[in-house]
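Milestone M4 deliverable, item 7.
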Amino acid sequence: MSLLSKKALVLLLAAATGLGALNAQAATATSSDAPAQKVSMLGGKFTFNLPKGFSANPLPASPDGASGTLYSNATTKTVVIAAENTLPKGISVKDNDGEFLDGTVADFDSAQHKSLPDYNKLSEKSLTQKTGLGLRQVDGTATQGGGMTLTTTLMAASGTRMAVIQVISRPGDMAAHETLIKQIVSGK
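Output delivered:
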């Protein structure tokens, strides 16, 4: 595992750390009347809109500078975590840096298997947005917060910043989960 991938993995794990509190926040949020949320990451290179019903809750900043927001929809029991971090000093990546993204996905997959005993990777995709920004998408299932969940993790990097978006849904709501992922990836 390269030093760069290890540092990138820190951001991924920071985003995943919030998973323990997700069910509690999703259950207590009053999100049915929440307006649509516009999310902008990587200096505006990665933007998308979440549909009505998602409430935004800022995540505490980590000591290494990672920051993010947890969006929860109590009605659908769906959670979206959007987190960003600065890459280690002196490291800069292209908008579609395949080597960096592939290494990050490999490290993420390994960490998921270690931290979630029943983690099952369903698929992995390499995507490029119209803007040229490269994304990696990893879909999986695992028991989290007391029940089985369906997760999609999107990873992107540009310059000295990295972004991670994790969408967590109930497995019985696959169609709505896939629709939300398409909306995020398309930037709409």
